[in-house]
Automatic annotation (TrEMBL):
Biological processes per GO annotation: potassium ion transport
GO cellular component: plasma membrane
The organism of origin for this protein: Galbibacter orientalis DSM 19592
Name of this protein: K+ transport system, NAD-binding component
TM spans (from-to): 9-27, 33-51, 63-88
The keyword Lipoprotein appears for this protein: no
The entry's keywords: Membrane, Transmembrane, Transmembrane helix
Domain of life: Bacteria
Cell location: Cell membrane
Length: 341
């Protein structure tokens, strides 16, 4: 649609340039005006401002002026209609798009809210989208929203305001990720979110180490320092390059690489509850390997022994290739959450 408006706009500009050129050249040749005088006569004629003429005109110049006025009325009217149609149609399309987006946001449940669509917010959205998670982004930069609203659901507004959080469905959300660059802003978001939803999981970005404790006291479940993680990772590539590169391979989102998956024991068939890893027999049945076990009290066991008992509210960390993970999900009737390439 906008391509059509663009072509109409170019036509309107071309016609305006033509009528101005036609008027200037006509007055120059027929009335023997100077170039400046011809341009002046053309402008006052086309715009119909009624200023006095440079000098009395003869009959030929008067006839030319009549033709110029008649032609310019239609051309200027066409140009104004094109501009008006473009502005009104763009506004209407934007309103329709945002109404549709609001309806989609209102239908979300157990979704994730991302506050801020900067570098960290974009990466979080990309990862959640890869794992087919429902999410909405709160962003107050309308230019940024207009640039990406075909890819992501947005709520335009300040994430510090309760009304904006409510518009994003904070009461129905499962998790909130705040990636704002300022720790004070993240602190306000955490406070507001925790007040509006006592059960929601809140993950907050922190720029300063001193902010981490404050954010957790305000209600954040987890705090992340991107700069610290990035610095540690780069240093580790110097100290243990091969090991770190191998670890990076585990998290690359690609169908041909290895995948990590977490499996909630509660999601396994009832017959496996209180059984052991031997009974689960992951390796033989699926090819996957259990590399970690999260106990109900939150403690982790790395490389768990085969005799570890599968308790309620615990989780298994599983390593396997995409087809093995898929086989695991199918065999134990687990909702698939791995990356969809």
């Amino acid at each position: 649609m906008f391509k059509l408006f663009k072509s109409k706009f170019y036509i309107a500009v071309a016609l305006l340039l033509f009528i101005f050129s036609f008027g200037i050249i006509g007055y120059r040749l027929l009335g023997n005006y100077s170039w400046v005088e011809a341009a002046y006569m053309t402008v006052i004629t086309i715009t119909t401002v009624g200023f006095s003429e440079v000098r009395p005109t003869d009959d030929i110049t008067k006839i030319f002026t009549i033709v110029l006025i008649t032609s310019s009325v239609f051309i200027v009217a066409y140009a104004i209609s094109v501009v008006t149609e473009y502005v009104l149609s763009r506004s209407t399309l934007q309103n329709i798009k945002f109404r549709k987006m609001k309806k989609q946001v209102d239908s979300l449940n157990n979704h994730i809210i991302i506050c801020g669509y900067g570098r960290n917010g974009m990466q979080a959205a990309k990862k959640l989208n890869a794992y087919r998670k429902s999410f909405v982004v709160i962003e107050q930069d309308e230019e940024l929203v207009n640039k990406h609203n075909d890819e992501v659901l947005f709520v335009i507004g300040n994430a510090n305001e309760d009304e904006t959080l409510e518009a994003a469905g904070i009461q129905r959300a499962e998790c909130l990720i705040t990636t704002l660059p300022n720790d004070a802003d993240n602190l306000f978001v955490v406070l507001s979110s925790r007040q509006l939803n006592k059960e929601i999981v809140i993950i907050s970005r922190a720029s300063q180490e001193t902010s981490q404790r404050k954010l957790k006291l305000a209600g954040a479940n987890k705090t992340i320092m991107p700069d610290k993680i990035g610095g540690d990772h780069m240093a580790s590539l110097v100290v243990l390059p091969d090991l770190i590169e191998f670890m990076d391979q585990l998290s690359i989102d690609d169908e041909t690489t290895i995948n990590l998956e977490e499996v909630a024991v509660d999601n396994l068939p009832d017959g496996y509850l209180y059984k052991t890893l031997v009974d689960l027999d992951l390796r033989r049945q699926t090819g996957c390997t259990a590399i970690g076990y999260k106990q109900p009290d939150g403690k982790y066991i790395i490389n768990p022994d085969a005799s570890v008992q599968l308790l309620p509210n615990s989780k298994l960390m599983v390593l396997g290739q995409p087809e093995q993970i898929k086989k695991l999900n199918t065999l134990f009737q687990i909702a698939e959450s791995t990356f969809n390439g």
